[in-house]
Amino acid sequence: MKALIGIDTAGAYEPAVRLFGRLGFPTPEVTLLNVADIVLPYTSFGVVVSIEATNQFVEGLRQAGNHEIHAAQKTAEEYGLSSTGEVLSGPTVLTILDAADRINADLIALASTRKSALASLFLGSTSRSIVSASKHSVLVAKEGVATQGPIEIVLATDHSPYANSAIDRFLKLAPQNITNINVVTAYEVSDKEAELLHLNLPALDGHIDQFIEGKLREKSEELVGKLSQHGYNANYTLKQGNPNEVIPAEMTRTKAELLVLGAQGHGFIDRLFVGSVSFHQLAAEPYSVFIVRADG
């Protein structure tokens, strides 16, 4: 599998390298990318910068990028990862996306920390660009990633067709160093959805919640069986409630280090992972997140 890991010049990329290395993907081909986003200082105040000064500024960025890539390669080697390094100039998000497309990456790995130049990727519109615009899966490592050991994960799903395809993609990526997969499904039934179900399934006699829970339980048990067939220890939790409350609670209960979820969901029950849920998990919660794209 092919991975592109974003490298900043402040050393804040380390959680991304370490988390990717610990997941234990088979036969990884790793590209470490530093982006020199060339924004000359003080030009917004009308200061005219000479060509010579501009060239010196750009060269300084490139040298800093190359220095950090060499350091990142040493970190990657601790996890048995061989890698190639590259420094490119341009807008950060577009350059990362273009590079990922060029190498046909299976995933993009980035660190999210306020100490990093890449921090802006996860603060507002830019984060939506990197996660939403990319056809590739995105591994977002937060601060506090352990340096070694297997990984406990929570896999959040609404059992929609897209979520199921994303899980199939996860299984093809086949991370090896996972202790347990805790499948969690949070569901909410609006009054309108309950009314529609009652009209179409009058035999339910008002027992809408029980009907939905039963169907989701069947799907959860089927998924746990599928994960077990792929060699993972797995269990499931089914809870009624807001996903942005249920998921963090499960992360705490299971002491999981990584949340895995599909990039979008078109399931019947509250469209669980459209926009607000996945981006809430990225921006507002302290744990690392693996956004899996079904098609990349």
CATH class placement of the largest domain: Alpha Beta
Strand content: 15-25%
- Number of domains as seen in the coordinates: 2
What is the radius of gyration? 21 Å
Order the strands across the largest sheet as they lie in space.
3-2-1-4-5-10-9-6-7-8
Distance between the termini: 11 Å
CATH topology of the largest domain: Rossmann fold
Please, what is the CATH homologous superfamily of the largest domain?
HUPs
Number of strands: 10
Helix-strand string: EHEHEHEHEEHEHHEHEHE
Major sheet attributes: 10 strands, mixed
Number of helices: 9
Q: Any idea what the shape is? A: elongated
CATH architectural group of the largest domain:
3-Layer(aba) Sandwich
The average pLDDT is 82
| Helix content estimate | 40-55%
Instruction: List low-pLDDT spans.
Output: 115-126, 265-274
Which structural class is indicated by helix and strand composition?
A: alpha/beta
Please describe what this structure looks like.
The chain has 296 residues and is an alpha/beta fold. It folds into two domains: 141 residues, Rossmann fold; 142 residues, Rossmann fold, CATH 3.40.50.620. It is 42% helix and 22% strand. It is built from nine helices and ten strands. A ten-stranded mixed beta sheet has the order 3-2-1-4-5-10-9-6-7-8, with helices on both faces. Helix 9 links the parallel strand 9 and strand 10. Helix 3 packs parallel to helix 4. The radius of gyration is 21 Å and the shape is elongated. The termini are close together. About 7% of the residues have low confidence.
